[in-house]
Amino acid sequence: MALCPAVARSCDSIVLLGRGALSRDVTRHLAAQAGDRRIVTVSTVLPVAPGEHAIDPLASGASRLLADVLIEARPSMVALLCLSESPQTPERPWLHDRAITDMVVSAAGRAAEAGVKIGALLALSSTAVYGVASKSPLLFHEQSACTATPSPSPCQRWADGLRASEQALLALRVAHRIRVCILRAAAPLGGPIDSTLEALLRASFPVRVLGYDPPVQSLAYEDLVQAVVLAIGQRSDEILNVVGRSIVPLSRLLALAGVFAPALPGAVADRVAPAALDGARLRWRTIADGRRAMQVLGFRPEHGLEESLRARR
Hints:
12 helices; 12 strands
């Protein structure tokens, strides 16, 4: 798969793997910055925009196609923005994430064999990997243990898949001496991508668990784009939590969004909860500490919860 002639080999070439709107918005922000930079966008979904390339990670030969892109572009960074967005997007996200991760790891190895050194890799993940906490810790920080909730739900399977993808990508530090940054983002709101909170707000029958009103944490879509752009520029080699300004009780979020969600007994709520959530996340919290991203990236969320909810309408 040949790159377009406009993409020349450059010391600051970036290969950006995305699923659509997010990668295009990040590309637009990067293109607006000063400096000599080439951006090669590879989409993992169809259709693609003009100038983009497409690779189906589930297709045979996907890693070879991506390796060809890396070898020709010789990127200083690969930005991986196409890991799954929620337990519903894309379909069977745990299989999608495994395929994406295997493709990237294999392609990095092929590129290394061809003498192409990738300096840095950025991967967008989710704070869902931490699981939930009923008591301690009050906040999950980047060194907190990621513990799986004993639940067979799609939500837990999704979080487990993201956690496995993170570990496989972090292994590239040793295998190929690549600087790897993982951005663990709180649930985005107000944009074109999916999240567990978006799924709850648009569910045909949203519910709460009687006796529980957990605090929830979100991130405005525009702030997510800004965090990714900052991380690409910084070439960090850390795991960083990226969170929004507001933490509100679930009942408050639903009220602000104008969504009626009856509080049902636990056993009933577990059975009828939207597929993107499970009973654990309707009872307990996943609140991440975002101070490290502020220190390392200079990231400051600019949009509040009300702005994010207005952007959904």
